[in-house]
Amino acid sequence: MRKKRSVPAESVVRPTSTSQKAVYLHRRAIVASALALLLAGSGLLGFLLGKGHEADAAAAPAPAGVTGVAAELAKQEDRCAAVEQINLQQELAAAQKEADELADSLNRQQDEIARQQEEMENLEETILDALMANLTEKTISRSGPTVASYAEKAKELLSLSRKVKSFEKTPEASEIDLTDYKAAISRQLANIPTLKPIPGKLDGYGYRIHPIYHYRHFHPAVDMGAPTGTPIKAAGGGTVIGAGYNSSAGRFVKINHGNGFITAYFHCSKLYVQAGDRVDKGEVIAAVGNTGTSTTPHLHFEVTFYGSPVNPRNIIME
Fold first, then answer.
1. Alpha-carbon distance 164 to 173, whole Å?
2. pTM above 0.70, yes or no
3. What's the CATH code of the domain at 246?
4. What percent of the chain is modeled with pLDDT above 70?
């Protein structure tokens, strides 16, 4: 029987002290910690080196190209600011011009209002002056009254009446009370026989051949043809001094106007007034007919002034 050969064992170095045993047991952890510390130190060194380069770069002057761009940008900003200022000035100038134009317009309007107000005051004075000049209670002097003087007075009063009526249609009329003046005009015109008694022409006054008896004679009136029953109005206000019938005039009415004028209305079919009645201008006093010496329905309208015949054309104007 063969004996086993004994192999010599590896020689192993084992720690002998306690501290050596601790290092031996934790050798791997120590190596790892050392590597970690080495890496951290390397990173810190790189960071510090990078900061140094940045500081150097900041301290170093900028390249020429960068400086030029910055200067150009500054110039552009200055130009923009200048343009904005110019635009603002132009806007302010336009606003000032508009304000000046508005002020001028307001001034013109105020001037126009003042002018119209002055015209109104002048017109009022003109009207009042005209009324004061024409609307007195004095009648035309009996020392020299004429049909022409009454006719002229009537024309002036009627003209003034038309002006007052026109003025009443204007907006300014509301500021002036013309009631008294209109009443004064009407009062002065009331007894002047200026109103046409019926519609129609004022023909037949003067010399003519009598339509029935065929002789030449003076006809002191006008004959106004109209249908029977047409209303006859008083040519002026006054007192009825005759209302009746005779063979020549037929049914008739006579009015004394109290100023020298007397008007007569012949050949009526009906009478609506009687002697002594007071009538107003325009009041219906009778109706057209064909009574008396007449060949057809018509109104024989006669005007006298202090007994003298007057052509109605010279006084009738309404």
1. 9
2. no
3. 2.70.70.10
4. 71
